Amino acid sequence: MGEGTTPLGETFRRLIRTTGPISVAHFMAESNARYYTSRDPLGAGGDFVTAPEVSQMFGELIGLWLADLWVRAGAPEPVAFVELGPGRGTLARDALRTMARYRLEPDIHFVESSPALRAVQAEAVSRARFHDDLMSLPGDRPLLVVGNEFLDALPVRQLVRAAEGWRERMIDLDGERFVHVSGRAPMDAAVPPDWRDARQGTIIETSPAAAAIMQELAARIAAQGGAALLIDYGHTDRRGGSTLQAVKAHRKVDPFASPGEADLTAHVDFATLASVAQAHGARWMGTATQGAWLRTLGIETRAEALALSAPHQRAALSAARDRLIAQDQMGALFKVMGIGSPDWPQGVGFDPEGGAPAP
Questions:
Q1: Most CB atoms within 10 A, among 81, 117, 233, 289?
Q2: Which InterPro entries match (predicted)?
Q3: In terms of DSSP bridges, do strands 268-269 and 226-235 run parallel, antiparallel, or are they unpaired?
Q4: Do 57 and 83 touch, CB atoms closer than 8 A?
Q5: Which helix (H) or strand (E) holds 234?
Q6: What are the Cα distances from residue 7, in Å, to 53, 64, 306?
Q7: Structural domains in the chain?
Q8: How confident is the model over 308-324, as a mean pLDDT?
Q9: pTM of the prediction?
């Protein structure tokens, strides 16, 4: 593990020396809070590129999905478009442009805490209203919610099977270096029953923060109407192992080398989130790979139409399409999960009979 020679790294050292080891969740939450509030991390000049920055087709097809669902739900008015962690506002801008073609012109709400990113987003979508969390979103209208690469940045707790039972995986110091240790408090009750007898050294991850957001989102959609698309990299079955990673300047780096100066993420557990959504009144539409979902929505047809109108961009459009849907790029690792109000129609691109989420 890295030495973390950054201002936040020194803060962590002082805290550990004073109060003892800290959790992985605490390290991740504080690191990302510092990281996102101090910069615009997106694009070629940042640390990573998200799907909306790859091609306008991504946001356009999300807008098409939302508009189609809204029309089939009876075109209720008023309605709110909500994006969780809108990046640079690119996805929203492209989606809203497409929605307007179907006479869907919702009020716009961005859930974003970073002042730096809020400034960029306001330039892209001037009508957006900003919120620190979901609690202040309107409660009197259906919500059309999108979260792209939002859940993966939420903190995860790591639990490890030690000799004496399950313990929380913590971060301590060995000299100046951060090292993993097992906590003292028993954590067996927090472990799913089918994992409790796992072999020593097994690690599992949970994200109470992601579950809390899904709980609030599902309850609102069930009560107000609407739907949500959650797009992220992750898995649809429960798995063991640490998925914590860091990206800086478009390269994977040691998560503990630059606290507050690299983007920390972990895989999203879509099976658990689907179960949480159902438990709080929403309908799970299904979870699909990004590649399959975008193909169903017509990305290949859209790419060809754009190429016909801009022949000199054909190669770039083909490369962007492939990056979004190819199995060895974003197409398989990234998943799309849909949830909706029980009285709204089923969303295109999902097969709810293709397998229920794990209980």
A1: 81
A2: NDUFAF7 (IPR003788), NDUFAF7_sf (IPR038375), SAM-dependent_MTases_sf (IPR029063)
A3: parallel
A4: no
A5: strand 226-235
A6: 31, 44, 47
A7: 37-155+207-341 (3.40.50.12710)
A8: 90
A9: 0.91
